[in-house]
Automatic annotation (TrEMBL):
Keyword list, A-Z: NAD, Oxidoreductase
NCBIfam families, per database record: PRK09860.1
Record EC number: 1.1.1.103
Domain Alcohol dehydrogenase iron-type/glycerol dehydrogenase GldA: 10-177
Protein known as: L-threonine dehydrogenase
Source species of the chain: Ignatzschineria larvae DSM 13226
Amino acid sequence: MMSSTFFMPPVNVIGENALADAVATLQGYGFKKALIVTDSFLSKSGMADEVIKLLNEVDIQAAIFDGTNPNPTTKNVADGLAILKAEKCDFVISLGGGSPHDCAKGIALCATNGDDISAFEGLDKTKHPQLPMVAINTTAGTASEMTRFCIITDEERHVKMAIVDKNSTPILSVNDPHMMKGMPKGLTAATGMDALTHSIEAYISTAANPITDACALKAITLIIENLQAAVEHGDNIEARDNMAYAQFLAGMAFNNASLGYVHAMAHQLGGMYDLPHGVCNAVLLPHVLDFNKSAASGRLKEVAKAMHIDVANMSDMDAADAAIAKIRELSAAINIPANLTALNAKAEDIPLLSKNALLDVCSATNPVQGTQADVENIFKAAM
C-alpha cells in the first residue's frame, strides 16, 4: 500500500455542551477579535448573538458577516474579506453548515494568500497557512467544519470550484447537538444524505486505507440507524448527537480518501442551477453506484453489511444491489426528490455538466474511470 497522509483539525469538541467547552478552550489561544461568518437565517435566529455573548465573556470581540449564500460565491468571499480587514480581525469563526464553513475558509485563505480565491482551485495551491479558523457546526452533513475541502461557486463561470488544501483545515471544530435541534426536516434529510454519500464514496475510493475504512463503515451504520429519527423528530437529542458523530466520521473518511463521481457531478449541478448539494448527492448516489459496482461490488457488500442487510448468502453483486436499493428506500422515506428532472435540471446541459465533472478533483479517485459518454449516461439515468 502507498503511504497515506491523514488530515483533520488538531482539536475537535463533540457532544452536548460542546459550544461552551470550545469557547473556554479558545481563551488560551490569545485571540482578540473574531469575524463570525454565517448566513442571514442564523444571524436572525439569535444563534450568532449567543456565540458573541460567550466570546465576550472571555474578552474576545466579534464582527459579523452574515451574507453567505446557500452555495457560497466568489463575491461572498470578497465581501467577507473586506469586513475582516476593516475590522482588523485576527481569526475567523464560521457558524452554520457547509456554506458558512466554506465561505469562512475562502476568507481565511485569502487573508494570508492574496485576494483572489479562484487562484486556489485544485489541490494545495496556497503557500501560507490561512488565518486561524474555528468552525461551529449547526448541521449534520457536510463535515466542512473538519475538512480541507472548500467549495466556492465562481459566478462568472457558473462552476463550483473545489479547493482541496491542507491550509484550509480549521484549528478547532465544534459539534454541539443542541445547536442542530432547530434544523428543518428538509435540511436534516439533505445533509444526512450528504454524510452517507461521503462515507460510501470514501469507502469505495481508490485512495481508501484502513483508517478511512473504519470511519466510513461506522458512519454508514450510525446514519442508517439515526437519520430517519433525526428528520422526523428534530428535538431527539440522541439521534442528533449520533448524526453529529456520523457526519464527523464520514468527514474523517473523505477528507483523507477523497470522493468520486457523485460529488464531481453534484458540484456541477450546484454550480449550474444553485441547487442544494446534499439533495444532488442523494439523487445521483444510486446511479453512480450502479456504474461503479462492476469494480466495487466486494466493497459495496461491506457497505450493505454496515447497513444491517443480511449478506451471508448473497453474491457480491447481489449485496451491492441490496445496498443500492436500501439507499433509494431511505431517500424516499425522508422525502428526497426522485430525480434530477424534479430539480429542474435540463437534458441539454448534460454534455457541459459531464465535461466539467471529469475535470473536478473528486473524479480522480472514483473506482471506475469513465469517459465523457459514461458520465453523460449516468446523468441521463438520474433525470
